[in-house]
Amino acid sequence: MNSDPRQLIFSAPMSRLQIVAVAMTIVLNALDGFDVLAISFASPGIAAEWGINRAALGIVLSMELIGMAVGSVLLGNIADRIGRRKTMLGCLVGMAGGMFMATTVTGLVDLSIWRVITGLGIGGMLATINAAAAEFSNARRKHLCVSLMAIGYPVGVVFGGTIAAQLLQSYDWRSVFYLGTTMTAICIPLVYLLIPESVHWLVYKQPKGALEAINRTLKRMGHAAIDALPAMPSRPAGRRISDIFAPELLATTLILAATYFLHVMTFYYIIKWVPKIVVDMGFMASSAATVLVWTNVGGATGGAILGILTMRYNVKALTIAVLLLSTVMIVIFGNTSADLTKLSLICAVAGFCTNAGIVGLYAIFAHAYPTHVRASGTGFAVGMGRGGSVLAPIVAGFLFEAGVTLPTVSIVMGLGSTLAAGMLMLLKLRPEQPVTTQPEPAPTP
User: Count of CB atoms within 10 A of residue 170's CB?
Assistant: First the structure.
């Protein structure tokens, strides 16, 4: 057979291999979710053991986010150069090493260094699996698959956090990092065995052995082999990773980066500070971890529901709606009394809205960028947007240290999502198009 294998993947029902590959991206994002939040689960114990104040704790909480910002940009670029699979494996090795070494530290500087290294792997992973989920799905379920990948983040926090809450009742904060190390190490052979290289990437880059690799993957998907690689005569010779800054994509890249930046200011305020806020209300660290788990139960639910709705409704309109609701829920959280049941419920609804916004943005990233810059575009938008995740714990920490009340801090931090909704209104997305040998059109900014 002589045809474009991307068209087969685009139009045919999803095979078992595709379903497994997408499922693994969910698992990897779940792992990312727990690895990021490990420091939040551990923060009350760290603060108590080392006697650090809120401002210093806010800086520590941001360290892996700095690594994530750099990793999203640099390693997203690498994923477009060397492939999705190799990048995933490399990121897992870095994450496992960083998580383990965090258990050996004796001060804030050492801990911060290893959290940055862990963040590098997480950031690269996020950009790579977003591209992989889109490229292993068919046309009908593309937004759903990317949305399901994105809800892996809160799912990882829920399951990992539930275990962490039990560990913290008997062991110190280091047990959280031992758990993360173990789960990360387990994923390395799973990725190696279960996820082949993306056919979309192989067709576009056409490295040595691409035809054989594509045919092996097509066979596992239940499709016939192709006789030759698709000709790409219309592909501009100068296509580069920097095309995300070309005139046709520049406005899209800037809008998406700004939107992500603003929303994650709100998202990471609730995610990073919930455990400490709950402990400061007089509850045990294990109870605080439980509230954070409920936040992410809501997040997973919100992401799943938004993903299903994208199969029928416009993803941009849905995302704008949940961004606006995110601000409302963060303000309500800031005015909630010291009652575990109320806090858990409010945080669950806040998590529903804030993570649904993240899921919607990831679906938009996958839709907005063509194959050759999909991981790079996602990585840049996420990486630059991660500035918001870095600033959120620090800004909130200094506001608290300055004596600003919880309701006021929540209003300030919640406004990020409203501003993000305003930015997203400026973006126009191209209609979904079938795969052809012609260059993929860019979205109209």
Answer: 8
Residue type, 101: M
State both tokens at 170. 């008997």
Q: Phi and psi dihedrals of 300, rounded to 5? A: -65, -40
Helices of type H across 232-339: 247-280, 285-309, 315-334
* Of 218, 242, 246, 220, residue with least CA distance to 230: 218
- Cα–Cα distance, 286 to 267 (Å, whole number): 22
Please work out, in degrees rounded to the nearest 5, the angle formed at the alpha carbon of residue 121 by the alpha carbons of 154 and 291: 25
* Number of residues in the chain: 445
Q: What whole-number distance in Å separates Cα of residue 296 and Cα of residue 95?
A: 21
How high is the pLDDT of residue 311? 79
Q: What span, in angstroms and rounded, lies between the C-alpha atoms of 175 and 297? A: 22
The pTM score is: 0.73
Burial of 211 (0-12, 13-18, 19+ CB in 10 A): middle
Segment 123-180, tens digit of pLDDT: 889 889 988 998 899 888 887 888 888 888 878 877 887 788 788 888 888 898 999 9
Among 138, 137, 171, 104, smallest CA distance to 26 is for 137
pLDDT at 237: 44
Contact 13, 138 (CB under 8 A): yes
How many C-beta atoms surround the C-beta of residue 445 within 10 A? Answer: 18
Say how far apart CA 407 and CA 329 lie, in whole Å: 12
CA 334/CA 405 separation, integer angstroms: 9
Give the C-alpha separation, 378 to 392, whole Å: 21
Tally of CB atoms within 10 A around 232: 14
pLDDT for the residue numbered 59:
77
Rg (CA), the chain: 21
Q: Which residues of the chain have pLDDT under 50?
A: 233, 236-239, 434-445
Output DSSP code: residue 208. Answer: T
Domains of the chain, earliest start first: 5-227+243-424 (1.20.1250.20)
